[in-house]
What does this fold into?
Amino acid sequence: MDIKISKVRLLDGRTVDIAIEGDRISDLCGDVPGNADIEIDGSKFIAMPGLVNCHTHAAMSLFRGYGDDMPLDKWLQERIWPAEAKLTADDIYWGAKFACLEMIMSGTTTFSDMYFHSERTAQAASDAGMRALINEGYIDLGDPDKREVGKKETLESLEKIKAIGDPQVQPALGPHAPYTVSKEGWEFMCGLAKEQDLLVHFHLGETAQNIEDVKGQSGMKPVEFLNSVGVFEDRCTAAHGVHFDDEEIKLLAQKGVNIIHNPESNMKLGVGSKLRYRELKAAGVNICLGTDGSASNNGLDMFTSMKFAALLSKMDGYPEAMPALEAVELATVNGAKALGIDAGVLEIGKLADIILLDKASLCFHPGFDHISDVVYAADGSCVDTVIIGGKIVMQGRHVDWAEECISKMTECSQKFRS
Amino acid sequence: MDIKISKVRLLDGRTVDIAIEGDRISDLCGDVPGNADIEIDGSKFIAMPGLVNCHTHAAMSLFRGYGDDMPLDKWLQERIWPAEAKLTADDIYWGAKFACLEMIMSGTTTFSDMYFHSERTAQAASDAGMRALINEGYIDLGDPDKREVGKKETLESLEKIKAIGDPQVQPALGPHAPYTVSKEGWEFMCGLAKEQDLLVHFHLGETAQNIEDVKGQSGMKPVEFLNSVGVFEDRCTAAHGVHFDDEEIKLLAQKGVNIIHNPESNMKLGVGSKLRYRELKAAGVNICLGTDGSASNNGLDMFTSMKFAALLSKMDGYPEAMPALEAVELATVNGAKALGIDAGVLEIGKLADIILLDKASLCFHPGFDHISDVVYAADGSCVDTVIIGGKIVMQGRHVDWAEECISKMTECSQKFRS
It folds into this structure.
């Protein structure tokens, strides 16, 4: 046995021992016999599955607080795009590595990322010991030249990420959105997805304008358009998803499309609507959770995102809409399912992606219901220990490489100071 | 000079020395000469005014996670009221003291509380070194017997809180709401408020049902009813305030009523609407911020509340609605103004209610805009040091009496375990 966590509390109130061998949970019961190479006294902790952040642009941690309180267009055109034009591959490595640090320190063990120079984000995730699906954002705007460049970048990204050779860090596909990628672009992605069994990760229905743009381009609603290009036959995750009508929700459910809820980003950018959680749930859609990038949230704490998701679902008069347990499921098992990862629950045989929460944190007092406390009272600072694939990446809130990472990322950000 | 904080960053980006003498800021400039009894190296910190939580039921920390995801009526009738029936004065002391600990650890220096056995909450606030306005919740439901009991409790509360003899902890008045307090009850409160110059703190426009109840009882809308009983002539704070029409907003502005925004509680209880921030602001209403009690939030972190308030104001398509600086103002200077406290800004002569945020926190990187980082990225765990009225109540996140308080509160909560 490699690691044994003794007498740890689970979210459901049980106290158990958890044994880890290699990258999996090898035993979980009231009393696991024998000793391990590493023994952790679990009596001070609550153990839960590591959080799964299904929609990030990790390197955008470089732009936290660089532009806020602006309409989306102005924010992109005046702040983000000019800054992104100055980004080097090295900046992206340190921005993404910093994001990994922030995710680890707030209990996230897996993330699914879209950005450019994606091989550098993949390297950062691997160096940080995280589990990740990384894609190269693809945009062609219907331009054949852009399409050729984008195809090349996507194919190179797949090879470079595979070449890292880390089983925890895998490539995916990132066609940006129905309004920025042509039919031919989608067909290219669908072909690759089938050929290499890849996740397809895109934006869908984020703003009302997006919907109109797609209708203008294709004569179809975005969900109909994506269905027509065949991408719903692949494993796919759609971020934001706030502007769906009933018909679209029905189709998403039929096709098994995973919807990523990004409550804070949607609210902050004022996209004008919110995820139709009750309707999506009733239709049987798998809903998972993401923070979006730190430029539009402005952080990566999935505990805060759970609270935002739950409260947003209730506010219009439905206090029972998303009970705390469902918010935890969005952030764990639903995300793992969407990304095709054998984790998200603490069970024998599952990947050992486990976080230990400090029971001494004020948020766990008086402690009537750990699930409620995790969703409504906790923030990421309650996380003491993070284990990913059976490896301890943080213990006692200490991460070996934190100091260098913070200093390098801050250095990279200097060029954006006006 | 009692305390000198050297070379500390302010939210606006300036670096200054802050001098404290007695309970006030005695100097604040680039270079304060001389030494102090206590010297704090401010180079590691960002200094900002202590946060002002204008609506709490502090002792309800005892009920965090005791009932969630339920409609308001069911929650009150099946969970909260039966539990409250078992509360002793001692429970209230430890529940409130624990709330003080949680508030201090997340940067709140002042709170305004409504509950019963209010003298025990006041004692807890005083023992914790906090600044507070404490009132005894008053409900008569139009019943003359209840009215006599309530009047007696209110008068006793005023005397007992004054008898504590702590200038930082003052009594206020707590007529619960227009639908639970009779015209005679309000007139009693107005008389007392004028006679003793007291703040009047109540709930207003929390649910649509509240509005209908008041119309049924008085033939008036709640704001009209309160205006008719004269309470708007006093200094008053109205919590929640989500169900106002344009006419009511106009009247609230004319009368200088302070409105307390409780974003998380309103969302979690599904009150069915949200604060009309843009309209209230346009009308010139002073808007401040509160967490509500830990039974309906479920925590007291005003950093999280600032994020909820700002994002909630934007979500319907107004990303510029509440810029980060306004969210900070809600939580500081507007709250101080509402409560009649000479604090809420860091200026010479103001009360020394100051919090120091750890610049090393990940949320302050890369650090383009401290105000944005405080609202959108920080949580209470970034607070290192808390000074209230020139006294250090937390330093290095250490609070002397924390351990005993956590243990006593947990003990008090045992009787509610099923």
Notes: Residues 353 and 388 of chain A are 4 Å apart (CA to CA). Chain A has a mean pLDDT of 97.
